[in-house]
Structure formats: C-alpha cells, structure tokens
Write a structure and sequence with these properties.
Elements (H helix, E strand, L loop, with lengths): L9 H25 L14 H5 L18 H8 L4 H15 L3 H9 L9 H7 L13 H4 L3 E3 L10 E3 L1 H7 L14 E2 L8 H15 L8 E5 L3 H14 L3 E6 L7 H17 L2 E6 L5 H12 L5 E5 L11 E4 L5 H11 L8 H10 L4 H14 L8 H13 L8 E3 L12 H15 L1 H7 L2 H5 L5 E7 L5 H12 L2 E6 H4 L6 H13 L4 E6 L14 H19 L3 E6 L7 H5 L3 E5 L4 H11 L11 H4 L6 H18 L5 H14 L14
Parallel strand pairs: 4-7, 4-8, 5-6, 6-7, 10-13, 10-14, 11-12, 12-13
Antiparallel strand pairs: 1-2, 3-5, 9-11
Length: about 675
C-alpha cells in the first residue's frame, strides 16, 4: 500500500492498519460485484490490498488488531460515541486522504468509474453493521462535523470528506481549529501559585470532577484581577490533564444559530485537545448577557466563568470559587522571591513594600523585571527606590480613568496652618507609615479585626488648604494623590453610587495612592436626617463609603464644607477630623510670602497690605498668578497695581466687591 502515516508512531501504525481493513471491505464489495476470478481468488491485483485481506465473497472481514494502548482513533470513537459503522465511515474518508489507491478502489466498488471517492451509499453497501441514522444531522458524524458532505442535497451519492481538523487529530498532530483563531487564546499556567491561590485552583478542579446534572462541568471564579483568575484556572486545568483557552463573553454571538455552531465547534475542540474554556464576563448589554448566559448554560465540557463579581443568572451556576486575598506572609514571600537577585532590596525594604502595595503575583514579577532592567542604567535611584517606583507605577493601573492623579510636589513648608492642625496631619502620616509594625508585628490587626483603614475628614471652606494638605501627606508617604470628585460619582439611580465607589476602591486596593474624595457634600448634604425613602437610601450610600474607607489599606480622606451636616454616627467611623479655618490676616500674609517666588521681579509688593484681602489661600494663589501674567504682558515688574487688577477679577468670580479697607494704601 502507498498510505502516508506518521513514521514509527503507535497512532500512525494503528490508523494504517484500520484503513487497510476498511479498504479490504471495499475491495470485497467490488469483488462481489464482478464475481470471482477463474482460480477462485477474489478479483483484483494479486499484489494489492485485496490479496492482503484474502477475502472471499460474502465472508465477514476480520478487523486488523490495533495496538493495546489507546490511540487517537480509539479516543475519537469513545469521546464522540461512534458506532462501529460510523467509525468505519471515518476511516473510509481518511483513506481518501492517506492512501493514493483509494480513488480507484472506490470507483471499482461503486461500479461507476467517475465516482472516485467515498460515498454514503458505498459505506452502506461495503461496511459492516450499516445504519441509515449515521448520516442524520443530529448523529455524531454531522453534529460534530467529523464528516462533511460536498452536496447536502444528495446525501447518498455526494462525496464524504473528513474534516481537516479530524484528519490531523488522527495522525497525531494536535492544534486549535483555525476557525477558532481570533476568538480563543491559549492560557498557560504559571510555574507556581501562592498557597491561597493554589487552594482555589484545587477547588476549581474539584468543581469539574464533582459536577452533577444540575451544574455540569461549570465553575464560577470570582474576585481578584483577570490575569490572576486566568492563572488559577490554568493551574486547575493542568491538574485535570487539560489545556486552557480563554475568550471574552462579548465575543459570543447573539444569533442563536451562530452561537450553537460556536458551542459545538468548541466542544469538539475541548474533546480533541483536550482543554477547558475560560469565559471572561464583564459589563454587557442585555442581549449580550443573554447570549453569554445561554452559551455558558449549554456547556458540556469543562468551563470556567471568570468575573470580578458574581454574575446574575437564573440558570444553574455550578461551583463558585471566590479568589481569596493573600495574607501578608504570602505577599512577603512573593516580593522576596521576585527580588531575590536584587541585593539592594533588603528585608526592611521588602516589608515596607508589602505594607504599602497589594499587587497580584504577576504584577510583582513584572515590577521586579522592571527594576532589574533599569538598575544598571540608573545613576540617581538605588534598587530599593526603583522597587518602590515600580510598585507605584503598577499600582496606578485602573485608577487613572477614575480620578485625577497628582504627582505631589508640595512639602510641609508650603502649608500655612496652626500647630494643632499640623500635628494631626503628621499623626495621620505616622498611622499610615507604621501600620505594618502596629497591625502585624504588634498584633493589633488580630485584636481589632475591623476598622483598620486610616480615614480622615478635612473640613473647611473652599481654598483653605485641604487639597494642599493631602498633597503634602502624599509626598511624605511617597504616594500619588488621586482626587475623586464625589459629585461625579453620586448617581440618582439606586445602586449606581455604590457601584461607582466600588470601582474606585477596587482599583485603589493595589495601594499606590492617597485617595481624596472631594466635594463630599454631594453625598452627605443634609441626608443624615431621614424624611423619606430617598434620604434613607442616601444614608446607605454614606455608610457604604465609610465602610470601604475603613477597609481600605491606605489613606482615604474626605473633604467637606458642611461638617455640621454629618451625623454623629458617621463621625465616629472617621479616625481623624482636621478643621481648616479661614486664615487670619497674619496667616494670609504668610501665604502671600510663600506664593511669590524669590526670582519673580517685584517692585513695591507688600504682603502685609495684600493680606488685607479677606480671601483664602486658593484665591491668594489665583490673584498672585494672574497679577504675574499681567505684569509679564506689560514687560514690567510685578507691582501692587497688577495685584489690584487681578484681585478685582477674582472677586468678580467670587461674586463679591472689593471694599476700600481691603485695598487701603495699595496704590
């Protein structure tokens, strides 16, 4: 025979033997059609396959024994539930691709020299145990597209073709079907996982193995970030002897027919590879959600539904596995392993990194790779400083789209506050900086269990220095300042405010930011007094915000102009309250001295006279800057007349009028 097979492989040998057996049946059928030769031997070439089989007319053909091990042919037959007749149809179609003599032998057996290909009528006539149901659309051959028909209007006489993917599977060349390229991506398991994630992977694998009829082979994996969930799922798949492929729920067709084709195509692949599928579910419109729900519900092969939060569905869910938070010990191990070859990052530095940043394993490894790349070229920052910067950079992901990021530059000298307020601000910084020592080393985290977040309320009028104080603390702590405008977060729709706040805190949990919730009056207002259901729900929104602030590992600050509107129950949940009073004349004079740069060309500028303006620090900065631009436009020194013009503009914005006493002696 001239068959082409994988040289020396068990799959190739078994397939070749099975193909010879089926072709021998075809030859026997041809011989019965022609009658026997004069010497009593079957018609055909004495050196050909028919002679090898030595089949007499009407005699049952004995199957050529295959290897004792499970071959690809055995796997295909078992996994798709093929009957002996359906298996032989697969082999007949495979023969057309593997054996060059098949065309002539099919033509001889069919009695039509133009029909040089396998057909269903030939299979019915030549193969053992034939049954018509083998070619119905719901039977395995066509349901799983193992066999294709050239012309579905001529079922018995059209050419039977073996699907290319099935042919390659039989000869031992696995790959993902090209029709799924672009939809699915291969997801590989990491070398190792932290113990908590490792246990979650075991639960996913157990969810597949323990599936019942109500929830077949489906597991929901909830929490953490997308990459972490994928790592856990890939580890579970590897332990189950499977590969893992991933796809987005948004890519599932909304058309029912297309969705069914995709489902059948993937299920076929899952059996052939074998593999599990991870479906990443995010925010979707109603139609897409329904399509994804139907696709997931129909899964008959191992599947993981990956999402940040539990999905809403009325269908059986299967096992739900929530990704746990890593302990501080696990985080320390992660950072220690990742920076093991960076000697400048000591144990003390690692403890500081763990206390500040809550990054997933893959991000910690990425931060370490960044440090190793940049360290040889850095003349300014050492390894520890580069590690902190790398952690800060990675922690920013996800927050930039939710708020306004400020890289802090202001220091303590830029603040003009009474000693009492300054001491409180410095105490807040100490609570953030030393929380690892107090909570972990001294055991306060286990003793107190909740309310460990550092929360502060900055109360005072606009421009009194609340945002500047937050910037100073962020610089002292080496963090970014993220300003979240609560007026943009609060929604009139029930539940939306909490959802928006949840997105902010979830992104901030990486730990690289001081969160400043500006315009808290938009949420607080007068809502602590319950008069109707809207007020009651508003109080729930406030409670949710304070709850998340208390649980936040970093520092979260609220600013308000309406401290008196807060209920005492809310106030008790805030650790620090700092009042920012309207600055007196001496404080205003000091602010004026600090906002005017030494290199600015001034003439006759008197901070004591400027302090007569009854405005807060924010307005002082605006007036100083506007006056400087007026002087620069004239090409002159910055003088009191420029400040007067700028003050008039600022007062118009504030809807106020300058009084003679405020500008007395200016010009």
């Amino acid at each position: 025979m001239g068959e082409r097979k994988g040289p020396g492989t068990a799959d190739g040998d078994a397939l070749a033997a099975a193909v010879r057996s089926v072709l021998a049946r075809v030859d026997a059928h041809a011989a019965r059609g022609r009658g026997t030769a004069e010497d009593g031997e079957p018609a055909g070439d004495a050196d050909g396959p028919a002679a090898d089989a030595a089949v007499a007319p009407g005699t049952a053909v004995e199957r050529v024994p295959t290897t004792p091990s499970v071959t690809t042919l055995d796997a295909l037959t078992t996994c798709f539930g093929l009957s002996a007749f359906e298996r032989d149809i697969i082999l007949l179609a495979a023969a057309a691709e593997l054996d060059p003599t098949t065309d002539a032998r099919c033509a001889a057996a069919s009695g039509d020299p133009t029909r040089t290909y396998p057909t269903f009528s030939l299979a019915l006539a030549a193969l053992a145990d034939p049954h018509w149901s083998a070619l119905t659309p719901v039977a395995p051959l066509r349901r799983w597209r193992l066999i294709e028909l050239d012309d579905e209007t001529r079922l018995t006489t059209t050419r039977l073709r073996l699907d290319e993917r099935i042919l390659h599977f039989l000869v031992g060349t696995p790959y993902l079907d090209a029709k799924l390229h672009g939809l699915l991506t291969r997801t590989t398991a990491p070398a190792s996982l932290p113990p908590s994630y490792d246990a979650a992977a075991d639960r996913v694998a157990a969810g597949w193995s323990g599936a019942g009829p109500e929830a077949p082979l489906r597991v929901e994996l909830v929490g953490a970030d997308l990459r972490t969930r994928a790592d856990i799922a890939a580890t579970a798949a590897r332990r189950s002897g499977l590969g893992l492929y991933s796809m987005a729920a948004d890519d599932i067709p909304t058309d029912a027919a297309e969705r069914d084709r995709l489902a059948r195509l993937w299920q076929r692949e899952a059996i052939l590879l074998p593999a599990a599928l991870l479906v990443e579910v995010g925010e979707m419109d109603r139609d897409q959600h329904a399509a994804a729900d139907a696709f997931i519900a129909g899964a008959a092969v191992p599947l993981v539904v990956s999402s940040p939060d539990p999905r809403r569905t009325g269908r059986p869910r299967g096992e739900r596995v929530t990704v746990p938070k890593l302990s501080d010990e696990e985080h320390l191990t992660l950072w220690t392993d990742a920076f093991a070859d960076v000697p400048e990052v000591t144990d003390r530095h690692l403890q500081s990194l763990v206390a500040q940043f809550q990054l997933p394993p893959h991000v910690v490894r990425q931060a370490a790779a960044t440090v190793r790349r940049d360290l040889p070229h850095s003349d300014v920052l050492d390894g520890a400083e580069l590690a902190w910067q790398a952690g800060l950079t990675e922690a920013r992901m996800g927050l930039d789209e939710l708020g306004r990021r400020i890289e802090p530059r202001a220091g303590w000298d830029d603040l003009v506050l009474a000693d009492r307020q300054l001491r409180i601000l410095q105490e807040i910084v100490a609570h953030v900086r030393r929380r690892s020592t107090v909570y972990q080393d001294w055991g306060f985290a286990k003793a107190l269990r909740s309310g460990l977040g550092v929360t502060a309320l900055f109360a005072g009028g606009s421009g009194t220095g609340k945002t500047l104080a937050a910037e100073v603390m962020a610089k002292e702590l080496g963090l970014d300042l993220f300003i979240i405008d609560l007026s943009q977060v609060v929604s009139k729709y029930i539940g939306e405010t909490e959802k928006n706040l949840s997105r902010v805190f979830d992104a901030a949990e990486r730990g690289g930011a001081l969160l400043l919730f500006d315009e808290a009056d938009a949420l607080f207002g007068k809502r602590s007094e319950v008069k109707d259901s809207h007020d009651r729900y508003a109080n729930l929104e406030v409670s949710y915000l304070l709850m998340r602030m208390e649980a936040y590992r970093g520092l979260a600050v609220l600013t308000t102009n309406m401290k008196k509107a807060l209920d005492s129950a809310f106030m008790r949940r805030i650790r620090f309250v700092v009042d920012f009073p309207f600055p007196g004349e001496s404080e205003r004079a000091e602010i004026w001295r600090r906002v005017l740069p030494p290199q600015a060309p001034t003439k006759g500028i008197d901070p004591a006279l400027l302090a007569q303006l009854t405005v807060a620090g924010g307005s002082i900065r605006n007036i100083a800057l506007s006056g400087a631009f007026l002087a620069a436009e004239e090409g002159d020194h910055l003088q009191m007349r420029h400040m007067l013009a700028a003050a008039r503009t600022e007062y118009l914005k504030l809807e106020r009028s300058l009084t003679p006493s405020e500008v007395h002696g200016w010009v």
